[in-house]
Amino acid sequence: MFDRHQAGEQAVLVHIDFPQENAREDLQEFEMLVSSAGVNALTVVTGRRDTPHPKYFVGSGKAEEIAEAVKMYDADVILFNHTLSPSQEKNLEALCKCRVIDRTTLILDIFAQRARTHEGKLQVELAQLKHISSRLIRGWTHLERQKGGIGLRGPGETQLETDRRLLRERMHNIQKRLQKVEKQRHQGRRLRERAEIPTVSLVGYTNAGKSTLFNQLTNAEVYAADQLFATLDPTLRQIDLKEVGKVILADTVGFIRHLPHDLVAAFKATLTETREAHLQLHVVDISDERRADNMAQVDSVLAEIEADDIDQLLICNKIDNLDDVSPKIDRDEQGKPVRVWLSARANIGLELLFQALTEVLGQDVVQHQLKIPPSAGKLRGRLYQLNCISEERFDEQGNCLLQVKMPLREWEKLLKQDNSQLQNFIQH
């Protein structure tokens, strides 16, 4: 049912420049998308227009040029760096005698290739079904009549109506299954909130180096590659930060300009990790000339999923691609870290990121002097488990004098668990 390419296919690429900013696409990024999809680009047909042509998207002369290129290079598919209407795709295919795939379908297809988890596959299929539901007519024009004949008399609906009904039923089933997965995710989040473990979410433009940084910080083996959408399924890992304790780090899908709305909608469950994080690490490829535009696109998607009000720490990654740039922490007027310059691939400046995370997440740190009698040895053991004792000595009566330093949330949690004893042991 899905009109997708096959790996190793030969393609003619089409890129049109428009004067309006919201209609522009990036040719270099499109070529990376095509490469990520495993398609071999034979040639690129470019042009300029003020507005899309209603019949072919491009002008009739440019459409003939594309058809000639298909014949000359014996191409299997035409890939457009733009979103086409169903009628434009149909008209171009009739003219060029070749399959036509637009930017949205290509992105959906890359996501379909990369999905590994059950949830990721369901989300991609849902997005594909939403996208294809408006394009069914193209594949069934020869069957637009009611079923009839011996053994074929059906419910009196056309083949097209049957397919639309089957699509709706499949989409409904997928949504029900995704709701079940979302409930499980929600339970996991509630358990982490009850344990008061903060979540840090990696966000950023696709291919900014998020998964490489994630692997360096957590010693995980998440797939990382120099291609668009190398990561699709969210991955959670636990790290320990000095003076903060346990922290959950979440690696999420990268964003891209003009990300298909169906895809954003389908991935809202996955992106909840971003929406409900305590802190976002916005990873930026600082060596990319389009970094300012890429950052704006990420902020736009974050606003769309209602995750734009969460504290951000900017990670200027890939400094090894620049000359005379060394790892450092930039701070605001209050001395709070706002930017960290590093290279995840070259393992440069990661200790500064740990330092910045400790400062940002461990801002509310408490220090107390405790006098614990020998009878409360269990509490002393608990404090050692929390790794919060900075100094220990004993007095003549055998009482343990402890200097403790820990995050405020850990202290409040301890008070809840051992309220009556702990309050009495604080030395003022």
TrEMBL record:
Residues 198-365 form the Hflx-type G domain. It is found in: Cytoplasm. Pfam families: GTP-bdg_M, GTP-bdg_N, MMR_HSR1. It comes from the Bacteria. The keyword Metal-binding applies. Its cofactor is Mg(2+). Coiled coil: none annotated. GO terms for cellular component: cytoplasm. GO terms for molecular function: GTP binding; GTPase activity; guanosine tetraphosphate binding; metal ion binding; ribosome binding. The keyword Flavoprotein does not apply. Its main location: cytoplasm. InterPro entries: EFG_III/V, G_HFLX_dom, GTP-bd, GTP-bd_M, GTPase_HflX, GTPase_HflX_N, GTPase_HflX_N_sf, P-loop_NTPase. Mg(2+) binds at S211, T231. GTP binds at residues 204-211, 229-233, 251-254, 317-320, 343-345. Keywords: Cytoplasm, GTP-binding, Magnesium, Metal-binding, Nucleotide-binding. HAMAP family: GTPase_HflX. Monomer. Associates with the 50S ribosomal subunit. GTPase that associates with the 50S ribosomal subunit and may have a role during protein synthesis or ribosome biogenesis. Belongs to the TRAFAC class OBG-HflX-like GTPase superfamily. HflX GTPase family. This is GTPase HflX. It comes from Thalassotalea mangrovi. The lineage of its organism: Bacteria, Pseudomonadati, Pseudomonadota, Gammaproteobacteria, Alteromonadales. The gene is hflX.
